[in-house]
Design brief:
Layout lengths: L18 H14 L7 H17 L8 H7 L5 H17 L1 H4 L3 H7 L5 H12 L8 H11 L4 H17 L1 H6 L2 H11 L3 H18 L4 H9 L3 H9 L6 H11 L7 H11 L8 H14 L4 H21 L2 H17 L19 H14 L5 H11 L5 H16 L4 H12 L4 H17 L4 H8 L10 H13 L7 H10 L7 H17 L1 H16 L4 H16 L1 H8 L15 H9 L4 H5 L4 H4 L43 H6 L26 H8 L6 H5 L4 H4 L26 H10 L4 E6 L2 H6 L3 H9 L4 E8 L2 E9 L6 E9 L4 E8 L5 H13 L5
Length: 843
């Protein structure tokens, strides 16, 4: 019977016209099943291609399962492959349909063509259906004894698949012992490599439960097995060679002669064209000679040339992988590469990730003899059109200077960078000049002369601005305009968004005040006032710390903030030696490329924030979306007990003060206090710059800072508010009140680090707030953003307070909206709520 004419409804197999197309395919496949007419295999191919294309784009063609199986009765290998692909795809989701394939797959496992036998066995072992395991044992046993190497190779991998799916069945069938026999006696190296891979996984998994499996795993790294594999290593494929070499790294030779025997056997593997084989061989050499220091250093010399060849001859991706390993070796033994620094010069057509790694290596291999050439090359990169690489090159120059190589010439180069009209060059140079001044104070006059010509308005990057501010504070005596530059920065406090810059600015103003008090008095008072009101916790706390020291004793404060400086001899390393050793132990792995031990990117706790499931679902309460929350730029009435002056605190001694012995210089209720500076200015201006410390001790601290007299009328003590510990409110009433009441307060608080660490799930904060008589009626969200709705009531009345609280653990802040029946007590309740929230996470 001639093959039927194919349907013309769909010109493209990837765009079927509808369900009728699948029905047409089913009819045509049924007509072709069992047909022996000439050209029938070609017709089947076209139909099979359509079925596979539909399956690939997600169309359900499982209804064709029976027809596909019937059409598989052919000797055409291409048809067999497509049929096996179809069967493997639908057998996983339709186990019942998979039963239909057993007969024809078992029949194909006995086919005369070894290619079909291997394909059928691979498909049968890939079905992964529980009720078909018993049908797999027989074909696998026959496959392991097959006369064709391809079938044996497939059967070995089939045993591993069976173990993963049903380990007990695999062990009961004694497949591991058969694999061990094949590994030692099979003539085909592909079979041997597959046996080795399968046995390593099986015995490693069984070792914890079976002493026999533990002994077998140890036998894999015995001398007979290792030498047998090494003697045949040239016959193995590149992948198999890497597998064998990885096994050899675990072998412990009995003496040094055995070490040299192994290295002689593997000497020619260092000349292999494949980079993976070269790195695997290098790892063997390095591991074998760890206890032989002299030989170990010679190994560095031996593996250096092959690795440098791979860098220059491979693709950028391969170059980066090999460079990462060279970088590790350079960090451990830089002297080996002193004469090879030119290999690390950047090429114009290299990707930026390769250039960045080369810059790090140039920094590491710099010494007295090659510093001039390396720095000259790095300075050329500073004008690179690739801005990140230009930045890295400038940093590299600074790192070399910190290594005490040719400091004079390098400082001149960095000062030239400061005069370039490129913002990013100036920014990077400022950061490096700061580090150089910390190590080489003798260069301060030359550096300050150039830095003094840089306007703070032209420096926008936070790190560079912080470096400039540090120099203004540290060398304020040498820089005539330092107090006035710092004062202008304090005046623009609201425009500075970086907490790092604000912290440096506060400290610099303090240092300048101790050196030039009359000119800095106003700036210090304004800076402390602004910092105390700052929403960032570190800025806020540092301001309180400085103020309390000044209040206690100005001389003590000077010794703490502005002590005699000593040159920094060694800067802290970014990685500990322990971590570097861990990375070296994982040579020839992703750990070297990532420059971190494997546990840091494989263990869940080191991968970043852990995601928690949202058990509560979406919130069903609340009339306003969270996007409408007003973000306060400053905390109102933050730490009220600390914001009282000395006299106010004495009158309010009955209230809680968190154990504080000192007061803050800022009170939100009297903004005019900051401007009352005339009397303090006149008193301090009459003092000499060298004798101010002893005289200022007799002044009130408010006078010293120009913040006004402490004798001002004290603010009335805050009214006490008692909350009902057993307050009750049903959700419908909460919703009604939330919609009707206006927002009394919208504020933003900082959450303590302990609080952030404790907030892994909403329930933790709910229990904490309930202990403070503040109850939660709804909550939700997952890390890093959580949302809560709280309520509470007064003890003496039914007046209710409602709170919407959104906490972001990544930014460590909390945004709150407070609504109240009694608007007049909203601020008092806000203080209580913030106090309860600040204690979250404390032991």
């Amino acid at each position: 019977m001639p093959p039927p004419v194919q349907s013309q409804r769909s010109p493209s197999p990837s765009q079927p016209s509808g369900k009728s197309e699948v029905s047409d395919l089913k009819l045509q496949l049924r007509q072709l099943a069992g047909s022996r007419a000439p050209g029938v295999d070609d017709s089947k191919r076209e139909l099979f291609k359509k079925v596979i294309s539909y399956m690939t784009i997600g169309i359900d063609v499982s209804s064709l399962f029976g027809e596909m199986v019937m059409c598989s009765a052919t000797s055409d290998v291409v048809l067999k492959k497509m049929c096996y692909l179809y069967v493997g795809n639908y057998a996983k989701v339709n186990p019942d349909l998979a039963l239909l394939t057993i007969n024809f797959l078992q029949r194909d496992c006995r086919d005369e063509d070894p290619m079909i036998r291997g394909l059928a066995l691979r498909s049968l072992s890939s079905l992964c259906v529980a009720n078909l395991v018993e049908y797999l044992v027989g074909p696998l046993g026959s496959g392991l004894k097959d006369g064709n190497a391809y079938v044996r190779m497939v059967a070995v991998i089939g045993v591993l698949k069976l173990y993963r799916f049903s380990s007990s069945t695999c062990i009961d069938a004694e497949f591991p012992s058969i694999l061990k026999h094949l590994m030692i006696n099979d003539s085909d190296t592909h079979v041997v490599a597959n046996c080795l891979s399968a046995l390593q996984e099986i015995w490693s998994a069984e070792a914890s439960a079976s002493d026999e499996a533990l002994r077998e795993r140890e036998a894999l790294i015995s001398k007979p097995i290792i030498y047998y594999l090494l003697n045949r290593i040239k016959e193995f494929s590149e992948w198999a060679q890497c597998l064998v070499l990885e096994l050899v790294t675990k072998y412990v030779p009995s003496d040094t002669s055995e070490v040299f025997d192994i290295m002689n056997l593997l000497e020619d593997r260092l000349q292999h064209a494949n980079g993976a084989v070269v790195l695997a061989t290098a790892k063997v050499f390095l591991q074998l000679t760890l206890s032989m220091s002299d030989v170990h250093h010679k190994v560095y010399e031996r593996i250096k040339a092959p690795m440098l060849t791979l860098v220059s001859s491979g693709s950028p991706e391969q170059s980066y992988a090999v460079l990462s390993h060279l970088h590790l070796l350079v960090m451990r033994a830089p002297y080996i590469f002193f004469s090879d620094y030119k290999h690390f010069y950047c090429q114009y057509n290299e990707p930026s990730y390769v250039k960045r790694l080369k810059l790090e290596m140039l920094t590491a291999v710099a010494n007295e003899s090659n510093t001039y050439e390396i720095v000259t090359e790095l300075c050329e990169y500073a004008a690179n059109v690739d801005v990140p690489i230009a930045r890295e090159s400038i940093r590299a120059v600074g790192k070399i200077a910190l290594q005490q190589y040719d400091v004079n010439a390098i400082v001149d180069r960095l000062l030239q960078f400061l005069e370039m009209e490129k913002d990013y060059v100036t920014a990077e140079a400022l950061v490096l000049v700061k580090d150089l001044l910390r190590k080489y104070p003798q260069w301060s006059q030359d550096c300050i002369a150039v830095v003094g010509n840089i306007s703070s308005k032209t420096v926008q990057e936070p790190k560079a601005k912080a470096a400039l501010i540090w120099m203004l504070g540290e060398y304020s005596q040498e820089m005539q305009d330092a107090p006035y530059v710092l004062e202008s920065l304090v005046e623009n406090w609201e425009e500075e968004h970086s907490a790092e810059v604000r912290l440096h600015l506060l400290t610099a103003v303090m240092k300048c005040f101790f050196k030039r008090p009359p000119e800095t008095q106003n700036a210090l008072g304004a800076a402390l006032a602004a910092c105390v009101a700052d929403f960032h916790q570190d800025v806020h706390d540092r301001a309180l710390f400085y103020y309390r020291m000044l209040q206690y004793n100005v001389s003590v404060a000077e010794r703490v903030v502005n002590p005699p400086k000593q040159a920094v001899s060694v800067f802290a390393d970014t990685q500990s030696s322990e971590i570097k050793d861990r990375i070296f132990d994982e040579f020839n792995s992703l750990s070297v490329v990532y420059q971190k031990p494997s546990y840091m990117f494989t263990d869940r706790e080191h991968r970043g924030q852990i995601e928690f499931s949202d058990e509560l679902g979406h919130l069903s309460i609340g009339g306003e979306p969270s996007e409408n929350v007003v973000s306060a730029q400053r905390v109102d009435e933050n730490d009220k007990d600390l914001l009282l002056t000395t006299s106010e605190k004495e009158e309010a001694s009955g209230s809680s003060n968190n154990g504080s012995a000192y007061a803050s210089p800022y009170d939100n209720s009297s903004a005019s206090a900051v401007g009352s500076q005339t009397r303090a200015e006149s008193e301090i201006s009459n003092q000499s710059a060298t004798g101010y410390s002893s005289q200022s001790a007799s002044l009130g601290i408010e006078d010293l800072l120009g913040l006004g007299s402490p004798a001002a009328a004290p603010a009335p003590p805050s009214p006490q508010l008692k909350l009902n510990a057993v307050a009750a409110l049903d959700p419908s009433t909460f919703q009604q009140k939330w919609r009707q009441l206006p927002v009394a307060l919208s504020q933003e608080y900082s959450v303590s680090p302990r609080g952030v660490a404790a907030l892994t799930a909403p329930q933790a904060l709910i229990r904490h707030m309930q202990s403070h008589s503040i109850h939660c009626i709804a909550s939700g969200g997952q890390s890093p953003s959580f949302k809560f709705f709280f309520f509470t009531q007064k003890t003496e009345s039914s007046s209710t307070y409602l709170v919407e609280c959104i906490i972001n653990t990544s930014s460590a802040n909390a945004q709150t909206k407070i609504k109240a029946d009694d608007q007049s007590t909203s601020e008092v309740f806000s203080t209580l709520f913030q106090s309860a929230l600040s204690k979250f996470g404390n032991p």
